[in-house]
Amino acid sequence: MTQDWDAGRLDSDLEGVAFDTLAVRAGQHRTPEGEHSDPLFFTSSYVFRTAADAAARFAGEVPGNVYSRYTNPTVRAFEERIAALEGAEQAVATSTGMSAILSTVMSLCSAGDHVLVSQSVFGSTISLFEKYFKRFGVEVDYVPLADVAGWDAAIKANTRLLFVETPSNPLAELVDITALAEVAHAKGAMLVVDNCFSTPALQQPLKLGADIVVHSATKFIDGQGRCMGGVVAGRSEQMKEVVGFLRTAGPSLSPFNAWIFLKGLETLNLRMRAHCANAQVLAEWLEQQDGIEKVHYAGLASHPQHELAKRQMRGFGAVVSFEVKGGKEGAWRFIDATRLISITANLGDSKTTITHPGTTSHGRLSPQEREAAGIRDSLIRVAVGLEDVADLQADLARGLAAL
Ligand SMILES: *Cc1c(COP(=O)(O)O)cnc(C)c1O
Known about the structure:
Elements: H1 9-12, H2 19-25, H3 51-58, H4 73-86, E1 90-94, H5 97-108, E2 114-118, H6 123-133, E3 139-143, H7 148-154, E4 159-165, H8 177-186, E5 190-194, H9 199-202, E6 212-216, E7 230-234, H10 236-249, H11 255-266, H12 268-287, E8 292-296, H13 306-312, E9 319-324, H14 327-337, E10 342-343, E11 353-355, H15 367-373, E12 379-383, H16 389-401
Parallel strand pairs: 2-3, 2-4, 4-5, 5-6, 10-11
Antiparallel strand pairs: 1-7, 6-7, 8-9, 9-12, 11-12
Helix pairs in contact: 2-4, 2-11, 4-11, 5-6, 5-10, 14-16
Bound molecules: pyridoxal-5'-phosphate.
């Protein structure tokens, strides 16, 4: 037998292969040039052999590309690889994580629908629901993440979507995805999970019962802080609606960014394992230190949902947050004493970052709102990268010494 890629054998041989093999090979299309890496199709439009060919492609009677806002082979390779990794029937790429969320809600909700959102989601996600979707007649309520009975009680006849991030940022709270999906489905609603903090390497929400997964590919999928992007994955029936919105409204992914993400996915599992290993060492070490009052990390036996985390995740992630002695002044002194770790609110990078949520990501909340969200003035968040863990520990020790 020959390796005949013109016949599409690259994909047809991936039945039943493992996650790491899919991460390296799923979605790859090889042109007759025989390139080994993924080809980058940097083109806005496509040419047709005849007027009749153009007409048939525009009518959707024959498959093929028309315009890169609709389809692009490099973007499609990224979408197919994400679908394979999340266990989705279909995935569709977007320009950013926020446009993944925008496209999901715009395509699946109408005026008069009700959406339930976890209280602990990304700040821009809250703004999107509060400032914009409400303006178009979508009702929005917020529910504490972990309380499945609370979600159940908050569902109304017109509830269309439940929206969560698990584990949450920065306090690493979890919700039982399977239980929440059952609650949603029993009342005719869909469960959307923002899986950006875990990636499919650590958690596959669709396999646990969720209906839709959204990602900011800007974070761990790239993994090296280079590009913005996002993706929505789920069943074809719902993805058809999301694709329709994207093609019309236009927050499509650049093929260059898709190419970067394809390269990122090839090392996703290796990187996530290394992120988790470093985070575990630092969380355990921090928990032993005098200046630290509390450490929030699902990989610690002291975490109230450690058993749930073990059940629904394959690793506990890269984000470790902790409360230091000395309130806000202590936290700022700790942060300013580090030398290696970058002071920035970003995450999902090979470089470790440190931030003070109370005055950055959660700075716009009132003191009462911060209190309710559990964001203390003494809280520091570290998004652990891929440096040598001893060097990271030494840098955090500088922070401790400054308390
Ligand atoms: C960063 C982030 C987003 C938004 O993604 P962008 O790519 O910045 O638009 C959404 N959700 C979570 C959990 C994030 O961390």
